């Protein structure tokens, strides 16, 4: 797909006063506010533009499936360390950046936005713009590149993304501990202050799973020191993959609850936030910083609870989004968002209302 074709579609929409819904493979159509506008499909704009394994940098077109990119990286013993969800293999690189979602290793390896080195995009006037670069030590344009992470496509059409990649760990081990929620959080906080190769954690239904990753000696030593039940790699790998892709038992149960009228919320909290007493099953990741709950509770109740705990709540899945998918912005922040939208997309063409109704 030539860039000129995308530019023509943007110019045509601007001339007609139409809106555009940016879509890769539609794997995250459920996320954020309800999509609207004429389809601007990016699935055909795919491929790896450049890859320098020795430099730990890859530049890839926005419509490229994440799984295809990861297959290429795996051939060189490398990976996307932030483990973005792939949603059944349909997730694309552009959607990955626009949604800004990270997987189980986020607490130890950093969020998606921290791995974005540069982007090329089209603004609302169909002009090509480039920010950042392909060198890890080059910080020019970083802020604008990373501004695209989690923007839900409202600022422009991503064409290419340059990403930092990392070597796959030499060894991994998964340990299981029988602990209640409060016990698990206390233990995670204690471990967090120690030099342990903890790569990911997940607590659900009275069990805490811990993934260690790194040098073989470090993983072996930590596993011996921590104790717990060692889970065989053949069982552990599918669990972490299911957690990453939201296809494991918890998320399948949450999907059924949503069909029955509940909502799946994603709470972003300080790691030290206490155990929460909520109506609905909880799954806790990132050492306590990310907490999922499928519940029929009203949006204002969930958001008030998250605010009191020092964080915020996002409606991840749910039929009723009248309360907004994302935490309402304060007046100063909303003003900043509006100015950014106006700067990049003055006619409001891209993904109208997908992040907030006012944008």
Describe this structure in words.
The protein is of the alpha+beta class. It has eleven helices and 17 strands. Strands 13-10-12-11-15-16-14-17 form an eight-stranded antiparallel sheet, sandwiched between helices. The two termini are about 30 Å apart.
Characteristic key phrases:
359 residues; alpha+beta; 8-stranded antiparallel beta sheet; 5-stranded antiparallel beta sheet; 25% strand
Structural class: alpha+beta
Gyration radius, rounded: 21 Å
Overall spatial form: globular
Total number of helices: 11
Instruction: List SSEs in N-to-C order.
Output: HEEEEHEHHEEHEEEHEEHEHHEEEHEH
- Mean of pLDDT: 94
Query: Could you estimate the helical fraction of the residues in percent?
Result: 25-40%
User: What fraction strand?
Assistant: 25-35%
Number of strands: 17
| C-alpha end-to-end distance | 28 Å
Quaternary structure of the protein: single chain
Largest sheet: 8 strands, antiparallel
Biggest sheet, spatial arrangement of strands: 13-10-12-11-15-16-14-17
As residue ranges, the low-confidence spans are none
List the helices and strands and how they pair.
Blueprint lengths: L2 H14 L3 E4 L14 E4 L6 E5 L4 E5 L4 H9 L3 E2 L13 H7 L6 H4 L6 E7 L5 E5 L9 H6 L9 E8 L1 E2 L3 E8 L2 H12 L5 E7 L2 E8 L1 H11 L2 E3 L1 H13 L3 H11 L3 E6 L12 E5 L4 E6 L3 H10 L3 E6 L13 H14 L15
Parallel strand pairs: 1-2
Antiparallel strand pairs: 3-4, 4-8, 5-9, 6-7, 6-8, 10-12, 10-13, 11-12, 11-15, 14-16, 14-17, 15-16
């Amino acid at each position: 797909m030539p860039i000129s074709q995308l530019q023509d579609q943007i110019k045509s929409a601007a001339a007609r006063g139409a809106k555009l819904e940016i879509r890769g493979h539609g794997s995250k159509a459920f996320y954020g506010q309800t999509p609207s506008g004429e389809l601007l499909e990016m699935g055909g704009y795919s491929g790896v533009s450049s890859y320098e394994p020795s430099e730990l940098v890859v530049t890839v077109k926005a419509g490229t499936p994440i799984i295809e990119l990861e297959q290429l990286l795996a051939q060189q013993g490398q990976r996307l360390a932030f483990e973005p969800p792939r949603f059944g293999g349909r997730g694309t690189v552009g959607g990955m950046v626009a949604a800004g979602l990270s997987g189980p290793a986020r607490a130890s390896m950093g969020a998606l936005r921290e791995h974005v080195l540069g982007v090329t995009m089209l603004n609302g006037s169909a002009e090509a713009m480039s920010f950042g670069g392909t060198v890890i030590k080059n910080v020019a344009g970083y802020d604008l590149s990373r501004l695209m992470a989690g923007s839900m496509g409202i600022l422009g059409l991503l064409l290419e993304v340059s990403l930092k990649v990392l070597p796959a760990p030499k060894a991994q081990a998964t340990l299981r501990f029988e602990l209640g929620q409060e016990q698990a959080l206390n233990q995670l906080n204690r471990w967090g202050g120690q030099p342990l190769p903890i790569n990911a954690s997940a607590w659900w239904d009275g069990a805490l799973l811990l993934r260690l990753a790194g040098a073989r000696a470090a993983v072996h030593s930590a596993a011996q020191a921590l104790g717990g039940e060692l889970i065989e790699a053949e069982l552990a790998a599918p669990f972490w993959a299911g957690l990453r892709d939201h296809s494991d038992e918890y998320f399948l149960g949450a999907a059924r609850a949503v069909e029955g009228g509940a909502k799946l919320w994603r709470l972003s909290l300080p790691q030290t936030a206490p155990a929460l007493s909520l109506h609905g099953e909880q799954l806790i990741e990132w050492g306590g910083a990310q907490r999922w709950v499928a519940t029929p509770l009203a949006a204002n109740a969930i958001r008030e609870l998250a605010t009191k705990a020092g964080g915020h709540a996002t409606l991840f899945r749910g039929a009723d989004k009248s309360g907004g998918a994302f935490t309402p912005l304060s007046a100063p922040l909303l003003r900043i968002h509006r100015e950014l939208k106006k700067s990049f997309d003055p006619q409001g063409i891209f993904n109208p209302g997908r992040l907030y109704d006012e944008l």
